[in-house]
Amino acid sequence: MALLVLCGLSWPASTATPAVPVTVWLAGDSTIAAKRPQKRPETGWGEAFESHVKTGAVIVDNRAMNGRSTRTFISEGRWQALIDATRPGDYVFIQFGHNDQSVEKKDRYTPPDDYRRNLERFVREVRAHKATPVLLTPVARRRFEQGRLQDSHGEYPGIVRDVATQHEVALIDLLARSEAILREHGEEGSKSLYLWLRPGESSNYPDGLQDNTHFSPQGAALMAEAVVEGLRELDLPLKDLLQP
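User: That's the sequence. What structure does it adopt?
Assistant: Structure tokens below.
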């Protein structure tokens, strides 16, 4: 399966385990976030990502939250709380877009120019704290028409790529990677990766559910693996703190 990383940046690697654990902060939306019991089996890929880092060497602090865009993540004080806690040597993974581009949802919609400015602010402030920003394009929705996977994010992934290029930021093109996973599984097989539930299958969703945005545990695990693959290819020092 051909997977893409659209940023060829590299950093000096170190195999030494840090004396103080490195924190990986996750900033994003429901596709990453940890879920409440009443939402299970919905699972964010950030939950699955934790199993890929070395215990004692890395702390994963998942600040992602359902329904948030770059705009609301800032306006609710979530970004400020995250950045205030960030320390030199940490990493901040930033993945937004699902809610920013939802023009019909005025409580979260972020126009493209504002989205760009917010991403640039995130990058600037992470670097000011001597930490490393990592940008991720928004993960794919499961939308097929006549057997072909459809785009559902418009210009927003391109903005992430542009910001990464212009400001020399590490980029994991999770959209491209997740699209490859969906194409490999196909229109029918990819249902198992998302929150497709039959009536009576889950007590949280007694009438069943057909959700093409949020992940099943299996889907979250595959998306986390895609993030890890991208991280290894970026050659950041963090890759030496991943599980073999």
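Residues 22-236 form a domain with the Rossmann fold fold (CATH 3.40.50.1110).
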